[in-house]
Amino acid sequence: MATNVDHTANGPDKEYGSSPVAGANNGLHREMTHEEHQTAQAAARFGYGPLAHVNTSNGRLPAFGGEFQPGLYRPVKDRKFANPAPLGLSAFALTTFVLSLINMQTRHVAEPNIVVGLAFGYGGLVQLLAGMWEMAVGNTFGATALSSYGGFWLAFAITLTPGGFAIPATIEAAGGPGMFYDSFGFFLMGWFIFTTLLLLVTLRSTIAFFLLFFFLDLTFMLLGIGYLHRNKEGVPNPPVIKAGGFFGLLTAFVAWYNALAGMADDSNSFFVVPVAHFPWSVKGMERHAKPEKATV
Predict the structure, then answer these.
(1) What is the three-state SS of 239-277?
(2) In this structure, are residues 98 and 157 in contact, taking their beta carbons and an 8 Å threshold?
(3) What pTM, to 2 d.p., does this model score?
(4) For residue range 107-149, what is the model confidence (pLDDT) as tens digits?
(5) Pairwise CA distance, residues 98 & 18, whole Å
(6) pLDDT for residue 50 is more than 60
(7) Of 268, 223, 292, the residue nearest 66 (C-alpha)
(8) Longest dimension (CA), the chain
C-alpha cells in the first residue's frame, strides 16, 4: 500500500487530503483532492500556492520575509496582534524610496529636507512601533531590525531638521563643513556594520529577504564612503552618493516586495507572492530530500 506524505508545507508532515481548501464546509473549507494537493505541493516548492505559508499550531515554519523571520520559527498561536512586519517594511520602504531619489538628484532635487517629515512620522515612529509589536509576538530579529531602523530614521530627522537642533551648524562652527561630513560618514558606516550583522543572519532564509539587507548594506557603505571620501571641492562625492541612492531604490522595492508577501494570501489575493528559498536553507534542503513518497 502506498502512503503519500507531504514534505513541502510549512509545517509537519501530513497525509494528502488533510489540507483544507476554500469552497466547502458551509462555504469555508473543503478537503483537497489528491490532484489538487499534488499541484499545491509543487507550487509550495517555489514559495507560492495554498501550502506555501500555511500556519499550523505544531512544528516550525521556514524563513519568511513577510513575517520578518530569517530562520525556522514557531507560528504565533492565538496572538492578539496582527503581523507587524508588513507595516514596518512599508514604513522603511517609502522613506528610503524618497531619500534615495534625492540622493540620485532626480529632477535636480538635491536637498533632503522633505524626508524629515517622513523620517519622523512614518520611517521613524511607525517603524519603531512595528518593532515593539514584533517584540510582543516574540520575534527577536524583527524587533531588533525594525526598532533599530526606526531609531535610524528618527536620528536622521533630528540631525537634519531645518532650524531645529542645529547639529550640522554646531559641528561646522567647530571644524568647518568637512567635520560634519566626516561625522555623518561615521554615522552611516556604523549603520553599515550593524546591517552587515543582520545580513549574516539572513543567509539561510529566502532570496528576497537576503536581498533586502544586501542592498541596504551596499547603500550604507556607499553613502558612508561618499561622505568620508569627498571630491576635490570638499563635498560628498556625487557619483558615489548617486550609486548609494540607486541601491537605496533597490532596497525600497525589495522591502515593499517582502511587505506584499506578508499581506497577500489566498484569503485576499488571487496570488501568493513567491519567496524562493536558498538551496542550503532548511526549506531548500527539504525540497531536495528524497524520497518524497514512502511506499509501505
Answers:
(1) HHHHHHHHHHHHHHHHHHHHHHHHHCCCCCCCCCCCCCE
(2) no
(3) 0.75
(4) 999 888 899 999 999 999 999 999 999 998 888 999 999 999 9
(5) 47
(6) no
(7) 268
(8) 83
